[in-house]
Amino acid sequence: MNGATHSPSRPRPTVPDSPSARRVTAAELFAGARELRIAHAGEEYRLTITRNGKLILTK
Prior knowledge:
Helix content: under 10%
Order of helices and strands: HEEE
Strand content: 25-35%
Shape: extended
CATH architecture of the domain at 26-58: Ribbon
Number of strands: 3
CATH topology of the domain at 26-58: Complement Module, domain 1
CATH class of the domain at 26-58: Mainly Beta
Number of helices: 1
């Protein structure tokens, strides 16, 4: 680690979109639900919107 930490009071820098990256909104992904299940490499992951509006990915 380089010792740099992120201060929660400062916004993170914007990273430009990669031409190969697909961008979708959480609203598009969740379509009104609070949980989304993702199948990847034979495993299932859950992407959940918390009460505070944060995203949590769990296996």
